[in-house]
Each structure stands twice: as structure tokens, then as C-alpha cells.
Amino acid sequence: MKQFLDTVSSVNGAINAAVWGLPGLVLLIGTGILLTCGTKFFQICRLGHWWKHTIASVFKKDSSSTKTSDKKSISQFQALCAALAATVGTGNIAGVAAAIVTGGPGAVFWMWVAAFFGMMTNFSENLLGIYYRRKNANGEWCGGPMYYLKDGLGKRYGKRWLGAVASVLAVLFSCFAILASFGIGNMAQINKIVLNMDAAFFSNVSLGTVPGTEIDVIHLLIGVALLIVAALIIIGGLRRIAGFAEIVVPFMAVMYVIGSLIIFCCNISNVGAMLASIFRFAFKPAAFLGGGLGVLIQKTMTQGFKRGVFSNEAGLGSSVLVHSSSDVKEPVKQGMWGIFEVFFDTFVVCTMTAIVVLSTGYIDLSTGQPVAGISGDTLVSQAFGKQFGAPGTWFVAVAMLFFAFTTVLGWSQYGSKSVEYLFGATGVKIYKFIFVLMIVSGAVMEGGLAWDLSDTFNGLMMIPNLIGVLALFPLVIRITKNYVDRKIRKKDVKPMLSFDPETEAEVASRLDED
Questions:
Q1: What pLDDT is stored for residue 383 in this prediction?
Q2: Domain boundaries in the chain?
Q3: Count of beta carbons in the 10 Å neighbourhood of residue 269
Q4: CB-based contact 284:409 (threshold 8 Å)
Q5: Which terminus in the chain has less CB density within 10 A, N or C?
Q6: What is the pLDDT of residue 69?
């Protein structure tokens, strides 16, 4: 078994270096920059508008954002919560801590940069997802990168060879999404749950190992318990997942932010040094990383970008798979929910983690070096424990449990939609069975390998998705301008709602419901 895992680790390392090298980073950030400029910095210039029509609308009485009469779809807010369920997970807690330990405090700055431009990448993905979605045999909306690759890129330019290429890219994306669902969406999340639960509640308990193996019995038992609960929810499909996420995600996010702000206030004297270290080490990385200045900066940037994408998933095209199930009529409106998703995930939750890590003394702010013996896996738990004692450690373990567990549920839907595209409804049933079983594998496998596999699958998903987004960039600009002209400038312009004339006519007739 060890030899097999070593081989997997070696192969994965080579692929990871290729997809997350300079070309991959240029593709990721370059796409965000292009979309930001093309939409005239929509995330800033239209901040009041997208804020009003996303999270602010949730607090309005009888808001169409929070409810739907369509039993085959979910509300816009449920789509956001289901997407956040898949994004707000270990990447926000252990991922940020690991980025700082590995790449220094400067990694936080590059996470912010990736998120700023990633807002418009996520906006564009969701916009295209709604525009190119269609209904399956059960009357449910299906959308995602595979659809805007095949029906968008494949048919937009009238080239037969391009249609064939687009179809291949659509299949590749679906395959990578399925693989990623087992990595970022399952094993990595479960692994972090187990490590934190073990450290918080079972550090003084030992049940030994499973006979003939090195598998810890406690880890196995936690994995089996998670498997049972996950199976009960996943079987219920998207509506049950979204309903669970709609309750759990907002509650746990608010509690985590409050806890982080308390730590911030208790260590407010360190704030100046903390912020200085983030900006200083972004361009002059910590010496402990080793290598020349150019290598150091690239390593810091890579850690920030990778962990940022691991957290908010902007550029992967994954959250489109659930956003496309919303009952929304306007593609741009669901795109604006994508902007808020990245904002909340990175600028709020990830920043809170960075504050906790950098303000509690576990990172030397003068050198950027972590204190001896510190591990990114449990660093946040130690920081909360330092401030609140044992209850702080318990809180992080519970927060990690709910954040990561809802990520597993969300990614089960991503994988299901990808399998449905390739194999139909029958394949979905088989996939869900395998996905649930993999929960136990995540509980007992080596944490580092699970995390490394997740990084690789992220990068592989990113490539075909961003090719599609870039190719359809002119369409994104046209649809955005069409929306701005109609909704903000009050011009009498025919709406652009769907690539399919029949679907557009049907949606347009109910546009006033949106």
C-alpha cells in the first residue's frame, strides 16, 4: 500500500507542477484581469447594485431571492448557500493556515489579488451557466462549463473542427470534475475533519489500529459516522442538500467570524505588524523558503493563488453546476451572486483565518517564519485554543466539521451533474454510491497526499473551463451590457436570457417574477 501511495504521490507531483506552473497562473489571473477590464470593473463600479440584488435582497420581505414555487429548482439564495457549502470548507481554515506556513504571510496578499479578479471570473462562469443551461428529462435545470463549451464555444464560431474540440473539452471538464469531487470535495475535507476532531476530542484516547493495518480505529469510526449522515442527505438530491446548507452555512460562518473578531480585538496591538508582514512578504518573501528572490516570490504567489482558488473555486467552473439550478431568469443576476460568493468566501472568511493565524504569535511577523513544531493542519485550532482554552479548540473542530461536511455535500452535486452529462441518470446512482464510500478513504488516508491531489484536480478543471470562458468573453460583455442598459440605464432593449430561442421566449414571459 505504501509503495502504491508513493507512486501516486510522485505522479501527482509532476502533474501538479505542470498545471500550477507559470502558464497556469497566467491563465487563471489573466482571465480575471481580462474580464474585469472588459466589464469595466463591474465588481467595483456596480458594487451598490450587485450588493442590493444579492445579499441585501435576502432581508427584504417576500423577496424572490429566497423562495421559489418551482419544485424542480432551488432559490437564488439556496443556490448561493449550496455553492458556499462547497467552497467554505477546509480551504478557508486549514488551507489558509497551510498557505501562510508554506509561503509566508505574503501568501495572504496574493489570495486577495486572486479573489479580486476571481469575482469577475465567477460572475462570467455563472452568467454563461445560466445562458447555456437546459432542462433534463425530469424537468430540472442542468448547466455548467460542459454545456457552454459544447453549445457555446462549439457552435458560436461555425467551425466544425472547433465543435469537435469543444466537445472533447466538455468531456475532459466533466472527467476532471468527477475526479476533483473525490479530492477537493471529499477526501481532503474529510481528512481535515478527522484530524481536527481527533486533536480536539480524542487526543488522550487510543483504540489502537485495525488489525493488520496502520489505520487508526478512531479515524475509521469518525469516517463511518460521516458516511452514514452524508448518505442520508445526498440521497435526497439537490433540494435536500440546499436546504441543509441554507441553515448550516450562514450560522457557522457568522459564528466563525465572531470568534475571529474576538481574537482580533484581543490582539489588536499586533494588527499593524500583521498587515505590514502581509504586504512586505508578498514582494520580499521570507528567507526560510529558500531559493532566489524570483523563486521566492513565485512560491509565495503560487501558495496564495492555489489556496485562494481551493477556497473560492473561481476559475474552476465548479460552482456553476449548482448555480445553474437556480430559478433565476437573468444570467447576470446569478452572476452577481457569484461575485458575492467569492467576496464572502475569501475577503471575509479567509481573511478572518489569516487574522487568527498572524495575530496570535504562531508566525514570527518579523521573519515570516512559523514557530517550531507548527503544522498548518491544526494551526487555527491551536490559535483558538490559545485564546479561549479547550473550548476554542472544540469550536474550531466543530466549525471544521460543519464547513467541510457541507463541502462534501455540495461537491457530491457537482460530481453528480458531471456524471449525468457523461452517462445519464443511471450513472448518477452509481457515482453517489462510490462517492459516499470514498468518505471512509478520506478519513484514514495520509492528509498531505489528499491535499496534493486536490490541488492537481483543481488545476485540471481550470484549464478547459477557462478556455471556454475566454472564448466566450465577447458574449459575456454583450450580455452584461444588455443587462446594464435595461436594468440600470432603463433602455428599451430586448433581453438576452438564453442561447435557445424557445427557452428565451419562455423565460422572458416570466421575467417580472425575477
A1: 83
A2: 2-59+68-513
A3: 8
A4: no
A5: N
A6: 62
